[in-house]
Amino acid sequence: MNDLKRSDFEVNRLGKATLLSPIFKNYAEEAPDKEFIDDSRRIIFDASIEAYNANKESSEDPISFLKAGARKEIYFDPSKTKAAIVTCGGLCPGINNVIRGLVNGLYYRYKVRNIWGIQYGYQGFIPEYGHEMIKLSPDVVKDIHLFGGTILGSSRGRQDISAMVDALERENINILFTIGGDGTLAGNHVINEEIKRRGLKIVTAGIPKTIDNDVNFMTKTFGFDTAFTTAAAVVRDAHNEATGAYNGVAIVKLMGRDSGFIAANAALAMPDVNFVLVPESKFDLHGEKGFLAALKSRVVDRHHALVVVAEGAGQHLFDEGDEVKDKSGNVKHKDIGVFLKDEIGKFFTGEGIEATVKYIDPSYIIRSEVAIPADSVFCNDLALNAVHGAMAGLTDFVVGRWHNQFTYLPIPVATASRKKIDVDGSLWWSVLETTGQPINMTNEKK
Amino acid sequence: MNDLKRSDFEVNRLGKATLLSPIFKNYAEEAPDKEFIDDSRRIIFDASIEAYNANKESSEDPISFLKAGARKEIYFDPSKTKAAIVTCGGLCPGINNVIRGLVNGLYYRYKVRNIWGIQYGYQGFIPEYGHEMIKLSPDVVKDIHLFGGTILGSSRGRQDISAMVDALERENINILFTIGGDGTLAGNHVINEEIKRRGLKIVTAGIPKTIDNDVNFMTKTFGFDTAFTTAAAVVRDAHNEATGAYNGVAIVKLMGRDSGFIAANAALAMPDVNFVLVPESKFDLHGEKGFLAALKSRVVDRHHALVVVAEGAGQHLFDEGDEVKDKSGNVKHKDIGVFLKDEIGKFFTGEGIEATVKYIDPSYIIRSEVAIPADSVFCNDLALNAVHGAMAGLTDFVVGRWHNQFTYLPIPVATASRKKIDVDGSLWWSVLETTGQPINMTNEKK
Amino acid sequence: MNDLKRSDFEVNRLGKATLLSPIFKNYAEEAPDKEFIDDSRRIIFDASIEAYNANKESSEDPISFLKAGARKEIYFDPSKTKAAIVTCGGLCPGINNVIRGLVNGLYYRYKVRNIWGIQYGYQGFIPEYGHEMIKLSPDVVKDIHLFGGTILGSSRGRQDISAMVDALERENINILFTIGGDGTLAGNHVINEEIKRRGLKIVTAGIPKTIDNDVNFMTKTFGFDTAFTTAAAVVRDAHNEATGAYNGVAIVKLMGRDSGFIAANAALAMPDVNFVLVPESKFDLHGEKGFLAALKSRVVDRHHALVVVAEGAGQHLFDEGDEVKDKSGNVKHKDIGVFLKDEIGKFFTGEGIEATVKYIDPSYIIRSEVAIPADSVFCNDLALNAVHGAMAGLTDFVVGRWHNQFTYLPIPVATASRKKIDVDGSLWWSVLETTGQPINMTNEKK
Amino acid sequence: MNDLKRSDFEVNRLGKATLLSPIFKNYAEEAPDKEFIDDSRRIIFDASIEAYNANKESSEDPISFLKAGARKEIYFDPSKTKAAIVTCGGLCPGINNVIRGLVNGLYYRYKVRNIWGIQYGYQGFIPEYGHEMIKLSPDVVKDIHLFGGTILGSSRGRQDISAMVDALERENINILFTIGGDGTLAGNHVINEEIKRRGLKIVTAGIPKTIDNDVNFMTKTFGFDTAFTTAAAVVRDAHNEATGAYNGVAIVKLMGRDSGFIAANAALAMPDVNFVLVPESKFDLHGEKGFLAALKSRVVDRHHALVVVAEGAGQHLFDEGDEVKDKSGNVKHKDIGVFLKDEIGKFFTGEGIEATVKYIDPSYIIRSEVAIPADSVFCNDLALNAVHGAMAGLTDFVVGRWHNQFTYLPIPVATASRKKIDVDGSLWWSVLETTGQPINMTNEKK
């Protein structure tokens, strides 16, 4: 549980919600039984009977997440509300779907008419860049869910917080929706601190964008399903390349900076893969039990092999001391794909085995893809729930999903640590059994 | 909760599991921390804090589901175990994936070598039909996940229970995996009763197959994601047809006998739809507030309209008294799609409006589709968990998923009632807002 | 050769082209070697050495088609030219691509700025309907090639010719591009006659739209590749349905009013098909050598069968005397698909064979599909060549392709008769061998 | 015309065909009008009326190609014929389709039962490699057209010719079908010389495999349509990446060693591309009129740019003197994609412009793809015609298509030179107009 306390899971609000929601007014007569959610509704983190029984003794409530959804009372007067949307960091399938969902949710459900897109990420707040804000409406976003990418453009890295809040003030923005990753959301939190310091009536809401699916307390993040769907097709292509040559070895590098969810799921969906290498499971390259020995054994036996590697895997194989960070503050990984390709080539040459090594890096192709329908529905729901929370006056929060219900989490909780594959759990277990790879590819004894 | 008692959720077992699982033996040294599940592990049905607090007073445990997964001890000796797989009812994306998962799970995880496919559903048990059993192995099922349909063939309807159990006895089958819908699983339960009566050492395990996603106590059934993915593409085609003609009205009929999940999700994924008609929300055809009046208003205003209708919607519009059932015992619905097409045509003619009505029924195209990667992974997990349960000696159960964990449910619980869209909940709410259709299309006052 | 004379292949022009083309001016300096086409360039119809030798004796030139392409001199002054585009008849993949190609060709290559879309087919010319013309520009058509359907809408049937030419006059339109089928193009020809009669300076150019690929003197029409691509996927689905049931018979009805090109090519691309029924090859239903007997033999032998039928096949099986035409003047065919489904069902029941018959009609799904890239490139080329011809003052012509070169044909030539499958040629031969169906399914002796 | 003489276009035969074809016998009664082709049937190379008129004076026949198709008489007795198939060089969509077509054509049309696959290219003939031959039959190849790659495996480079012919002799192979590129076919020709020298009764037939579509005297080679279809999707992804960043520049490297057909067609199919760089059109990097200046102008103006580069483009930009060849004898190109990425990055930095450069190399993903239906039908036809030619005793030939008819060409003619884009013709013209790129990106005056 990452040393988090129960109280860390409380979402802040700007103030009491006192206005009747247009949704409620709209439906009051025709659908009096429509469900509205209030702040007492929460979803328990651990739904196991063991946790239940353990907790029963305790006087405290179990850890739980605020349930997302439309509130009967809202904080902002729609006719006076100005909302802005910003997209940051690398591309991820579904960004346009989220933008569309936010715009339509604000416009049709709350009658907010003053909606703006900030261009090119946090840069868009900084006058020096000269990026104009774009007026958004249902007409503008009508068909954007049919395209990958982001209509607003994006950029990496934070900008000066004070300048950003100046921009919010100057533009009279009441609600800022941020679609971005870890670094972006952490930035959002700092923006919020500054807002608080200045006593402004501005809320910030985040929709976590991480194609790696590595946000804690969230079953899934948007774009992930599309990502491993696209990756699975590439894995099949790589299988054709591997079997197309005698002693053919195909390597596919997939996204996954700190966790191997895409790699694992793509391999399960297209189970021709023989090795999945992920950050969560350390491996040696050389030595009797190392990866290369296992690979050789496979190639000698079957004359082809298919390797899927997450970009964050095997980082310990590189020399230390020269860590580099990108503009978003992420540690820039050495390219494990290219490294493996070279090492495998050298290894087989050294072993006197004629092997053909092929390397595929489909990252840009995956992240710029159109969201599949399952993601499309999910993005829309995330966006609507972000709108509900923001209109109700909640702030410094992200929207998540847990136990198939949408939730609101404080940003610091969502960014405190990252979700990883449990190498003793059933997902990794399935990977091991599907690939047939050794459980342990290190030379240390467990 | 459908009047179910806590005790109804207990899964039966054939006997105590006393043999050490090959999985455990296989991993004991290399992965001593691997997680094994025992029968005390359960998932609480209602994970809300409200339910938690309400329950706290009570002396009883809350309703919960047995957690699925590999057990350390198993019931059947793999070297002596004979397993059979049967697929029943209509096609659904993912059947081949489930078959593949069962075969590979039995073969690689438990070293069961004696695996057979029953051809053409329950017919395959009846000697008169002359359908041979097919020997299954990883080689046979290697690439079948890349194809829709079922390699075993299927049929509708039950066969004589006694003759079926005779077949199980005659063939010395220990484990019967049934991939089928409501009627099939109910059949499975009756088979189980007969097995018990005869005192045989046979377990039956079900993997619920309903493209409609309407099984209670299960977040999702396999094939559903693929179904609405395929449906969404057809909905877009229909949009092109609707806008391609002046006053063009396109109608897409989708699966959904008792519930409109496919229709609702397809409409949310491809939000060009103007009307979603589902079994859960009654509508009148005629009258001031009826569907045709709303449709006319849309067509006059925008000159095209797109209607998605679930096959079970509007059944009250047909004359009663002539209910027909198909061989599976399902009530055969009148064809609401053709009916609507005719009624809409007549209506516009009557109104003096020249409209072009186009009707699309993509059912066979949807249900015979290849599983998308998300379904592929899901099918594999369902199959593996079915294998774990059956090898452990559990019987008369189905595999499900709840709160993102796999579960085992007694068949009678899973088939007692059907999951439906809550018309006061957030899914239907999203549909109403996305389509802009009237909340209430009946002439009665609510 | 359909009794056409050499002189029938001469394309009319409105007058001599005397203005220097902007393309020539634009490229004169940088690309002096660019190829421009003049009216002496023609493509020979029959490129066989036999025809060559036969012709050598003759004093006449062989039959040939005017070569399409940019002319150095043009007829219309771009700055004063007004062009209009109209789309008629049923949907076909690629219509939007053609519209885009026309607009961009006029705009970028010839600097024509005055381009309009006529809405809803020929109706758009008739004031009573009240359809506004739409101003078109590269911005408007930017992304439309990514969508199926037609952004202009369509309608069937001719309107009053005089009223249509009135509209052309009233709006000062100089060039009318018509995207439509047989009936539409014939209409275009009549419009042209009226234009000539009135002595107007208006040219008409057609881009033949027939998903059936049945235009004479043209290797291929746009949308056809996409059509059989989509059809092939449905054929595979049908294969899954056929094999999914014992004695499963799946029937797919595909487009093909007078010719079976889509059916034949879909069956060759997805060669699981057992019977292809097309208009060009008559068959009996009953009798020793009839289709049903052949089908029974297949089903008894293999327990499943897959039938692909073109919509115009087997029309002789219906009672005559009640021919109906649609608004475009096409004979409305009885539904051979539904008919076959019923007849097959009755037949097997009569034979005491329990068969499951499934019927799929994917027509709307196919014709509303997005053009595949091969079609996309083709549509663009067709459009550009239509623009080149029209700007050069050619009139009453359609754009075609022959021997992999683009051509201009007089409309009467292109609509005089229809292209059909030669049942003694290699395409039908391939179909017979791929399906294994009897050559002759009539009871007459050949 | 590459200095080829008329006589170069004569295809060799092993001897007179004297046996009645099983196809003829099979169809004689039921289809007496079926068309059979004899060696007098030829297709004229140049079907223009200009060439016709020029030739009329001459006493010689025009250059023409032998028409492919089933002959009434064949050379080999099917019951005694042994055929072998080998696939060489890099992957290309459709190889499995060709294999399937060959096997089914031999088996069903000619009743040849003795069909073998050579594994891993020409290596498969060399005993030292130990690759077993694989027995092929319709059952083995039933579903392989649904997969990319090659079921036979492949390798690059020639093997010892004498050893290869030894293998043909040793195995009593009568017909060798080779699916491969330039180098492979040239190898095939040399094998044929050796066969002639030894006086063996063996024919060799080639099916040209070049994803680049660069074979002379052939409109299209198999796999090309699939290649640019797949490439077009990646181009769209790259567009999303380019627009997703401020001053985003995306580069897609596509196949095209000596010709830019894939690059050109992908850009036309997905016309978001701003620059297409191909081997046929030289460009400077630097200087006032160089590519980088043009790119800068685009980026400054629109803030994003999309570049498609064929792998063989810009080779003059690399230092000479260190030419390297791969095992197939192809000159190994320096990686123009990586080079451009680096140069563009340096250039913008030097110009003080913050640009984001993204580089995509989808080659393996494209070449391992499943053939699209249009390719599927084409592959099947190529294969059947190869079978017809070989059974008739033709040798040292490849199958092609010209003027939409299948042809047979002597291998030396097909490999004498390569097809290239005519930079003064309509394809390149379309590319220039679609992209808006300068006609001339060199600093020399034209």
From TrEMBL, chains A, B, C, D:
Catalyzes the phosphorylation of D-fructose 6-phosphate to fructose 1,6-bisphosphate by ATP, the first committing step of glycolysis. Catalyzes the phosphorylation of D-fructose 6-phosphate, the first committing step of glycolysis. Uses inorganic phosphate (PPi) as phosphoryl donor instead of ATP like common ATP-dependent phosphofructokinases (ATP-PFKs), which renders the reaction reversible, and can thus function both in glycolysis and gluconeogenesis. Consistently, PPi-PFK can replace the enzymes of both the forward (ATP-PFK) and reverse (fructose-bisphosphatase (FBPase)) reactions. The active site is at residue 212. The gene is pfkA. It is found in: Cytoplasm. It holds the Pfam family PFK. Residues 83-388 form the Phosphofructokinase domain. Homodimer. Substrate binds at residues 210-212, 255-257, 311, 364-367. This is ATP-dependent 6-phosphofructokinase. Pathway: Carbohydrate degradation; glycolysis; D-glyceraldehyde 3-phosphate and glycerone phosphate from D-glucose: step 3/4. Its cofactor is Mg(2+). GO terms for cellular component: cytoplasm. Keywords: ATP-binding, Cytoplasm, Glycolysis, Kinase, Magnesium, Metal-binding, Nucleotide-binding, Transferase.
